[in-house]
């Protein structure tokens, strides 16, 4: 069985304010397996940052337990922190120094070499821009430098909290490609986001939360399992519709194709049509995408979390 890199059990965080107690994280069981990219998804205010802050010892849980690499945290954080890199808040870099100079300073303070710096800059693809001043960097370049800084210690777990926030589409694509490469290189990446399209393209597995509670967790392929519908293309749609209806199946026209809603296997459709002498050109199972799964699961949470009229993305 693969190692569980992040594990929480019954994790809870309450904030007390003038208006009483607010539960930001509620009985959360999180399990992130080693290797690949794990999406940590939820609408704004659902408790992602609070969970990450607790894992990193930046906030104290109200109750529950947490472990990183099997070691209880925060108790044993000092022992595991050299295996963990995190970009949670925007890191402070010197604006008049170049990206490379900033990283060299950092490397010197943590006992890393200039070749470690070069390697990290190479990995995040800053290339020649490494020698430009930090203040001239775009938001995406700043984000990549922040990731390069965490790579200096060659972490086995990388925690990125909404790394594409505020980036333009090109910047989002760059970070997405980088995260994908890092996951493929053997680093376990926890990627928090509320942008579904982005996560679906990079993540191997996901945890979806709403109002601090676990809503779903698993491999992306499993979460977006077949919806019980097939799209078929046949030469004689009228004959196909009739044959399917006689077999108790309904088919609705969808452009040149037909959509058949059924929980029966696709082979059944092909048998019914074959027996009626209608041959299939195409039969495709229709799948929900992660976005529809997410929207279904978090519908109530989004309504609670967002002021009316605001786009939660
Ligand atoms: N220090 C704090 N004091 C009081 N309430 C807080 C504090 N930090 C977070 N919260 C509240 O806890 C809830 C969860 O916030 P959190 O930032 O963890 O959500 P998130 O899922 O990371 O959201 P986003 O996607 O907007 O970053 C929110 O209702 C937030 O207002």
Summarize the structure.
The protein is of the alpha/beta class and about 325 residues long. The chain has helices at about 50-55, 75-80, 100-110, 115-125, 140-150, 170-185, 195-200, 220-225, 235-245, 265-275, 290-305, and strands spanning about 5-15, 20-35, 35-40, 65-70, 70-75, 85, 155-160, 190-195, 205-210, 215-220, 225-235, 250-255, 255-260, 280-285.
> End-to-end span in angstroms?
36 Å
Range of strand content:
25-35%
The ligands found in this model are: adenosine-5'-triphosphate
Instruction: Spell the H/E element sequence.
Output: EEEHEEHEHHHEHEHEEHEHEEHEH
| Number of domains as seen in the coordinates | 2
Percent of residues in helical segments?
Answer: 25-40%
Radius of gyration: 24 Å
Number of helices: 11
Please give the number of β-strands: 14
Which fold name is given in CATH as the topology of the largest domain? Answer: Rossmann fold
What's the CATH H-level homologous superfamily of the largest domain? Answer: P-loop containing nucleotide triphosphate hydrolases
- Outline the low-pLDDT stretches: 303-313
Q: How confident is the prediction overall: mean pLDDT? A: 87
